[in-house]
Structure formats: C-alpha cells, structure tokens
Amino acid sequence: MDPVKHQAKQLLREVYARVLFHTGLHALVNWWMPKRLTILLGHCLDAPEINGGLPDDMKISAQKLGAILDWLDGRYEMPTVSGALAALEAGSNGQSLVALTMDDGYRDNATHLLPFLRERSVLATIYLESRPLDERRANWSHLFFWIVKREGIEQLTRRYLQSAEDPAALEGLRRCLEEGENRLEYRVKRVLKYDAESNDRDHVLARLFDESGGDMEALTAELYMSWDDVRELRDAGWELGGHTINHPVLARLSSEEAAREVEVGARSLERELGSSATSFAYPFGRPWDYSDESVEAVRGTQFQNAVTTSSGTNTPQSDPFRLKRIAIGEETELHLVAAEVCGGFELLRRFGLDLSPA
Ligand SMILES: [Zn+2]
C-alpha cells in the first residue's frame, strides 16, 4: 500500500475508534453485532527481575493490562480460548467473549500473571513450547537476545559470519552489514528466522552463547516456567495449549517435520498435565509463518482449534484453525481494543472497509 493511503487508513482507524469509545457508541455496536470472540495476545507481564532481557514488545505492564481488563470487566465474558469457542458455538445468547492468551510459557506467567489475574477472576490461555520445559533449553532467539544485550548486534553479526557455514545466512548477514546500522537487529533476526538453515543457526548461536560465558540451564530457568509452574496454572483453571517443541517457522519445514513439532509438543503436554490440550498457537503466527500443510498437521492431532497472529475478531463462521488475535503491549491504546471487541471494525468490514492494521 502506498504511504499516503496507509496514513489515511491509520488516521481513519484512530478517529473511528475514538468516536466509538468516547461517545459510548461501542455499546450500541456491541449490541447490534452478532456474538463474537476477540482473543488478546501477549507474552509476558513486565517483571524486570525475570524478563528484563526480553524485547520490550514482548511485555505489558500490570498497570496497562489492568486498565484493559478493567474496561472489559462486566461488558464481556473472559473464559479460556476453548471455553470461549464452546460458548460461541452454543448460540447467540449471552455476552460476547474476550480471551487473554500469552505465548511461549515465560516464568512471569506463574510468578506475576497468575496472582494478578486471580485477583480479578480472569482466566488465561498459555501456549507452551515443550523443549524449554522438557530439556531446559531455550530456543535460538533467546540466545540471540542474550548475546545482543551484552555485545551489541554488530559484534554478534561479525562473530556469526566467522562461525557459520550456511551460504544463505552468510550472504544475508553480509548484506545486512553493508546496509548499515539502521534497524540492523531487526534485519539480522529476519535473516536468521527466514533464510538461515535452522540446524546450522541453532549450532552457531549455541556455540557463540557458550563462548560468551552463557549458561543454558540458568537462562532457561530464568526465562521459562517449569512443569510444576504449569500445573499450578492448570489447577487455577487456565487452559494450556500447544506451541510446538522448538518454536520453528512451520511453513519452512517439510510436512513430516511440521507434524512432528506439533505432535511431540502435544504429547509432552498430555504426559505432564494428564489430559490432552485442545488449543494450539502457530509459532510467530503470521500468514507466511504457517502453511495449509501446517494447518492440516494441527487438525490431524487432538487439537480442536488454533490461533494465529493475524489481527481481528472471530465469529461462529470463522475457521477454528485460523483464529485471529489482537496483540496487546505497552503501546496499546484502549480505544483501539474497545473498537475491535465491540465489533466496530467487523461492522466496517461488512461494508467493504477493512481498517485492520497492516
Ligand atoms: Zn511464540
């Protein structure tokens, strides 16, 4: 989309949401629009002593999340994802639904988020990577963040270039350095995520992490929950869902590898929690991160629904294996959340105007 059009769309989105929110029209739209399920997406509650090393866009403060939940309270029901889908399918009676989800299984979910939500009687759905739980190993992105934080992105990129053998990664990273410092971390991470051969990448980063004095077990214990923590969430009535073993881009894997990532992760959940998980989250979750084959791999297991990171709300007509979510973070504005959950943006879509963020 050209920049002028994009800006106009952003402005219209902003004005429309503010009008709905501040005039109270959101209540009328909510009443008028069919029952729907909006799924909020986050990763961590901000807890510097635990997740200070994670990028800011993965965290939301208790104050910010509290403001969103306070506004939703009384207006919408807030069950788990699978609970909400059952309520949506049961018919049009009752309030519309909002489900809070957090991806990956970070430790603050048990230490900070659990007491915080318990006080408000809100349930959450947590999507768990199984390797950090089963083997106490963090995926490559956390080794990347850890090294960048200590040595800077340029140093990491240069060291990576000296250690890697994979031609696609070498070429992509050389180009990143040639293009200068602007958004270097973002561009390097993209090459590692989408272009690099994943085994080579994982080995190289593990070696660099090791050489810099990193301790894998300590890092995993700092960042991720243990199975005991997860069982505490289960006992609080939360839903625990699958999120693969290693958090790969499923679309880049063969169908056998993708199926293995989905199934083995699911088996771990079943073994440790005593019942099979019904909800799944595609790692990264953008349309190019999973394929039709990935969807089939999930549908072929015990999972009955799956969430993406495409933005929007869901209706009984939505494909249960391609559910949309709304990302929430410190920058999130309440009027935009309100406009989405009341069905305001969905209403415009029915008139052919799609104001979802790009
Ligand atoms: Zn994730």
Topology:
Elements: H1 3-23, H2 25-32, E1 37-42, E2 44-45, H3 48-51, E3 59-60, H4 62-72, H5 81-89, E4 97-104, H6 108-119, E5 124-128, H7 130-135, H8 140-151, H9 153-163, H10 167-178, H11 184-195, H12 198-211, H13 216-223, H14 227-235, E6 239-242, H15 255-273, E7 279-281, H16 292-299, E8 305-307, E9 326-327, H17 334-341, H18 344-350
Parallel strand pairs: 1-4, 1-9, 2-3, 4-5, 5-6, 7-8
Helix pairs in contact: 1-2, 1-17, 8-9, 8-12, 9-10, 10-11, 15-16
The structure holds zinc ion.
C-alpha Rg (nearest Å): 21 Å
Strand order in the largest sheet: 6-5-4-1-9
Could you name the ranges where pLDDT drops below 50 across 5 or more consecutive residues? none
Q: Examine the coordinates and then state which fold CATH places here, giving the name of the CATH topology of the largest domain.
A: TIM Barrel
List SSEs in N-to-C order.
HHEEHEHHEHEHHHHHHHHEHEHEEHH
Estimated structural class: alpha/beta
Number of helical segments?
18
Q: How many DSSP E strands?
A: 9
Report the biggest beta sheet as strand number plus sense, adding barrel if it closes.
5 strands, parallel
Report on the architecture of this protein:
The chain has 358 residues and is of the alpha/beta class. It folds into two domains: 211 residues, TIM Barrel (Alpha-Beta Barrel); 80 residues. Helices cover 53% and strands 10% of the residues. It is built from 18 helices and nine strands. A five-stranded parallel sheet has the order 6-5-4-1-9. The protein has a two-stranded parallel sheet with strand order 2-3. The chain has a two-stranded parallel ribbon with strand order 7-8. Helix 6 links the parallel strand 4 and strand 5. Helix 1 packs across helix 2, helix 9 runs antiparallel to helix 10 and helix 15 packs parallel to helix 16. The radius of gyration is 21 Å and the shape is globular. The chain starts with a helix and ends in an 8-residue tail after the last helix. The model has no long low-confidence stretch (mean pLDDT 95). Zinc ion (ZN) binds next to strand 4.
